[in-house]
Write a structure and sequence with these properties.
The protein has helices at 11-22, 36-45, 62-72, 87-95, 108-119, 127-134, 142-152, 157-164, 168-181, 187-197, and strands spanning 2-7, 27-33, 50-53, 77-82, 100-103, 124-125. By secondary structure, it is α/β, with parallel strands linked by helices. β5 (100-103), α5 (108-119) and β6 (124-125) form a beta-alpha-beta unit.
Length: 200
Amino acid sequence: MIKVLLAEDQALVRGALVALLNMEYDIEVVAQAANGQQAIELLKKHPVDVVLTDIEMPHMTGLELIEQVKTIQPEVKTVVITTFARAGYIKRALVAGVRGFLLKDCPSEQLADALRQIIQGKKVIDPELAIQALDDVDPLSDKERKSLRLAGEGKKTAEIAAELFLSEGTVRNYLSEAIAKLNATNRIDAARIARQKGWL
């Protein structure tokens, strides 16, 4: 039995995915989370084979979750299921060690089959998406990305500094660098550009 932990912030989508996967004879969703932080807590309590995660979630993105899973339980396979086929997302997911990258509009049999292949040690990534990712270059550093994401959420410099344990001056520098790299007019514009590219 393939034991799955599902992280998806939209309750309706989460419920549908759980129902579809539990209909398979060899797959069981043993835990479900509404965000990445919740998923980490559940991962400590439930032994699973696969973490199936969305990307855009509050508190902790799916990509940050994948990085944490790799550190906490490296033997657990990670799979992304998302609405967004953004090259930046795919590239970062591959770098983080994701085993599968699927779109939410794929048929349920395809998802179930992908999980079976991943358990056997294979990678399942749409070839078109993989090619797209190779052509994409993300200019942001990790700290610039985190600062920009929080700025895009409307947080002020002091709030970003407190959340990232940095000085306000350092945060201002990261945001200025990100704005310059993306040829943006301000931090909100830079966050919008980076989000469209899948770099946040």
